[in-house]
Amino acid sequence: MEFRPCIDIHNGKVKQIVGSSIHDPVENFVSPNDAAYYANFYRNLGISGGHVIMLNAPGHENYEATVNQALGALKAYPGGLQIGGGINEQNAREFLDAGASHVIVTSYVFKNGLIDYPNLNKLVKAVGKEKIVLDLSCRKSQNNDCYLIMTDRWQKFTDVKVNTETLEKLALFCGEFLIHAVDVEGKNQGIEAELARILGAYHGLPITYAGGIHNFTDLDKLRKLGKNRLNVTVGSALDIFGGSMKITEIIDYLNKY
Fold first, then answer.
1. How confident is the model at residue 100 (pLDDT cuts 50, 70, 90)?
2. Which residue has the higher pLDDT, 154 or 210?
């Protein structure tokens, strides 16, 4: 189990938002520091594999400012960070050449309530599966019996369950998974325990879990339910983003296992 840092960028600023509000963001924290500051901070701590997420969609008036922030982070920590947000087969190679270790894919593949396999195949052809991280953002189904992959900025359900079978199928097209628990993302109120248990049953590619961690009890619960297999990102609960959990203490805690 490894700590994976994050840098979320919206309107050209590093922020933490409530995940379920991504369509109309509710801010938890807006940093006075730029993305390169955090990239250097993570680099100095010796932690890698984190994700830079560009929250403005391509075409948005602030998209360019957000991209420039992201590129600054990649330049500050080449090979140490993954990047997501508006990634497709046309621009993926550019971000990798700019210093990203992987590209994180969401809306290009998961859209209109479906998984777009033709686009996924295009991306694999463009950069190779080992450079792709699939973001399987998910939430409880309407009848509450499973977790389903979400599309369209986390607003539309697919009929694809997050389980071992799905992960094994999608593992043919990527090198890692990033899984956001949408209903608890950014709320600082605890993890999705059932989802952690499902992910812990999978023996395959690396998975980073994101969503809801707000104290060390949550972190310990995730470690146990995920059978020490899941990597973890912590956002709004971190001291560097206005929270109470010290990043150095999290690293020390995970290094014990």
1. very high
2. 210
Within a 10 A sphere around the Cβ of 114, how many other Cβ atoms?
Answer: 14
Averaged pLDDT for residues 170-187: 90
Tokens of residue 198, six digits: 């499902």
CA dihedral 257, 210, 74, 103 (to 10 degrees): 110
Q: For residues 117-125, give the mean pLDDT.
A: 97
- Does the CA dihedral 70-74-76-81 come out positive or negative? positive
Q: CB–CB of 17/27 below 8 Å?
A: yes
Give 163-220 as a 3 state SS string.
Answer: CHHHHHHHHHHCCEEEEEECCCCCCCCCCCHHHHHHHHCCCCCCEEEECCCCCHHHHH
Q: Does domain 6-255 have CATH number 3.40.50.300?
A: no
**Phi and psi angles of residue 43, each rounded to the nearest 5 degrees, phi first:** -60, -45
115 φ/ψ angles, rounded to the nearest 5 degrees: -100, 120
